Amino acid sequence: MNPNPLTEADLDRLEELLEAEIFGEEAMRLDEAQALICAVVSSPEPIQPGVWLPEVLGAGADKGDNALVGETVELLMRLNNDIAKSLLADETMSPLLYPVDENSEEYDFAAWADAYVYGAGLGGDWYELAGKHADDLSELLEPMFMLNGMLKEDAEKNGERWFLPAEEARLMADIQENLPVIVQTLYNFWRAKRGGVTVQHEEPKSGRNDPCPCGSGKKFKQCCGRPDKLN
């Protein structure tokens, strides 16, 4: 595998490949792939490529003998290595963000945060692994749940008071601006604790948009994959 960091041309090529027909529109966008890998690299438990690559590529990950799939996997592995080196060196990573839609000047921070939260679930139950520091972890993760809308959704569902529009907008803008710092802080939290008890997972994980295996009829990310059940 090419050991060199990804160039802008490499990122453009990866973005193009993730949209290739062979993945049947199941592959993540480049921004989502970056976010998931950030969580994977930060995980308290090692997550092998055989676990996270299918989450990024969908069913296309099984077509490893295809040249396009092989090229995509190599670029994703290089992206993984770049992110790992950047976070280890405590460098400020730059989130890859897409506009909310073609005509919007707003960036889709919600999709980035949603992919990060899902990637966090691939590495065991973060809260359980945090032990006595679970409250600290909860505070560190809260901005991600603000960005992907899950905190607001839970508050509205439970009839709890939410921020006034102006206050919410100010808070969201602050979180968006500090996203690189938030990602680095979460990495540093687990780096300090890494090497704890390994949590084994016997059953395959549900995809974030798959029906929840509990039989509720909801999507996994809206049921057992919610932030309070990262497992």
From TrEMBL:
Gene3D superfamilies: 3.10.450.50. Transmembrane segments: none annotated. It holds the Pfam family UPF0149. InterPro entries: SEC_C_motif, YgfB-like, YgfB-like_sf. PANTHER family: ADENYLATE CYCLASE-ASSOCIATED CAP C-TERMINAL DOMAIN-CONTAINING PROTEIN (PTHR33747:SF1), UPF0225 PROTEIN SCO1677 (PTHR33747). NCBIfam families: ygfB_yecA. This is YecA family protein. It comes from Azonexus hydrophilus.
